[in-house]
């Protein structure tokens, strides 16, 4: 009998770091056993990850969505996302990984929404296919990163920081965020409040489920938090909270063998029946229906 999967493993960046524990750039083949041992196993990272698959093909499941990956594809993963790489053949590419402190993506006063938008968005991830010219630009940046890491000349960390920022700007341009961001988002105060709200959700969605809870932590009225959220993202603050809880429930349903009751308690619901009604109301499926449907789809891919 197969062992029951009850948890989703977490990997820390130092497991991949050969020298600097806050920033890693490496060819996939050079990552060693830590990387390949996780192939086929759903897990989370506690760091930001960018994968560039240059050659080969694989299946990459991010949370509950499986992507059939071909050559020249970029993936942007935020800390805490569940992902699973299933490789059926040799692949070539790179992994860029960094701690939040290296880039401060969660600090809206330091980094524009364009850069952080690759990791924090309504789809909870970004998948970008590159054309030949775009690949050449990305290749040039990655090679400069590797050079800085290998030579470690004076101010190399500053150089890496600038190269990473440029990489993210290019990624944002290709994805189209530079066009999609409305002018209102550049209002620093509202944008800062919204980023703080999103960060608070990540920290507290297990325990806090209402707009009033988060508005109180931000020292603003719930109606104002909803207005800012609607203005900058197109959906209300309540929808952001619900979407995050539902996403985590889907992660557990898809990647573990936990029952709906066990997942309900993990997510801070006192009443498992209420959790099941909540899940069905916003997904049109019961937890068991979602698990059965998602598993059948994954077996067909």
UniProtKB/TrEMBL annotation:
* Entry keywords, A to Z: DNA-binding, Transcription, Transcription regulation
Output the Gene Ontology terms for molecular function. Answer: DNA-binding transcription factor activity; sequence-specific DNA binding
Q: Which Pfam families match?
A: AraC_binding (PF02311), HTH_18 (PF12833)
> Which ranges carry the HTH araC/xylS-type domain?
195-293
Query: Superkingdom of the source?
Result: Bacteria
Q: Where is the signal peptide?
A: none
Key word Phosphoprotein present: no
What InterPro entries does the annotation carry? AraC-bd (IPR003313), Homeodomain-like_sf (IPR009057), HTH-like (IPR037923), HTH_AraC (IPR018060), RmlC-like_jellyroll (IPR014710), Tscrpt_reg_AraC-type_HTH (IPR020449)
Q: Which PANTHER family match?
A: ARAC-FAMILY TRANSCRIPTIONAL REGULATOR (PTHR43280), TRANSCRIPTIONAL REGULATORY PROTEIN (PTHR43280:SF32)
Its recorded name reads HTH araC/xylS-type domain-containing protein
Give the originating organism: Chitinophaga flava
